[in-house]
Write a structure and sequence with these properties.
The chain is of the alpha/beta class and 400 residues long. The chain contains twelve helices and 15 strands. A hairpin with a 2-residue loop joins β12 and β13. It is globular.
Length: 400
Amino acid sequence: MTLQKSTLRDLKLEVRPSVDACQSVASDQSIVLRFSEKLGFAESGLLRRTSIQEGVRTFVLLTHRDVEIHILDETSLMHTNSFKAIDGAVTAARCLAMGLDKVVVESGGNTGSALTSYCSRVGIKAYCFVPERNLPNIDHSVFAEPNAHLIAVKDRHQVKQVAGSFARTHDLYRVPNLDWRIDAAMFRGHYLIELFQRLFPFDYFAQSISAAFGPIGIYRTLAAELSEEDLPRFLGVQQEENCPMFRSWSKQRGRELPEVSADTSLLIDTMYDKNPETYGTWDDLADLLTRTRGDLTTVNRGEFEAMLQRQFQGVRIPERLADCGLVLTQRDGELVEKAGMVAITGLIKQIDAGAIEPGSRVLCSVSGGTRKIGAVSQPLAFIGAPEEVDRLTPGSLSRD
């Protein structure tokens, strides 16, 4: 499905003409509640039950080479400290509407934590499968809840298969639902529409991506309200160690494909999927990039670490973010969640290369960075391969 206005009637969320938002709920509290009725969300009543905190805000980061960089803070005011909290609220509401009392979740960490937290809070048991190596970066408090069940998979590239096998064996619904993820991103799009109306349009929107559900949902909303020439140009940023979308885009554009390092040590552990295009989002992303005259870029570990130390008007970016109330979480001197800083690094890389024109205004999403850390989450089981799932049952994982 391409981002054309004529296709919007086919979306599960009908984008209605712009109307006054629900002024009783501020954007820094919950954009889910603020825009649920405006979007025509069929389960808006259930969203009032599932919403916890899905707040966003914006602030000016700095001006670099006459490019004004604004931050879309989608981490510090979110219940689970990433924009995946929106997915959590939407998923929980849809599951309640379907009468589900159990779901199977697969994730690298952020999505799984969000879906598990929101579902378990409303009485839906969640069986969440994550890579074993990501356990130190998962909020242990989420999986201390009675309805939350954490299972670690030793090979991160087997998480999909293991979760799928468990769901099929026990006839359980599997999330994340791909359509629901795009639906959730449309709430972010309506926040941007309101932001553009309140402040000014932006020339570019930048975000780190894997399968690109977020930008696809955002631009479906924007395309319903803005003319094509007014759409902000999209800049997607991937980690060089695992950049299948960038490589596909470069091949399509006839660019020489650079050599990239093997994904043995990823910058962003939660973006480990080697084949995110299998979700069926590549055509939509390519269409989005073409229609907005956008681009994709990559960031490697050296560029990322250099950016952490680089000073702008005598201040490093993490310090500037902290001055604005967005304190990136660290463990042993290293950032726990890097997606936001990867997006900023890719953006500044493009500015330095002259790919973003002086005088431009750019809105850059910091989609994660303030993750809670503490004790390492203890899974209820470890799985080495899909065939080992036979020894697991919902009963064997019960906390009762």
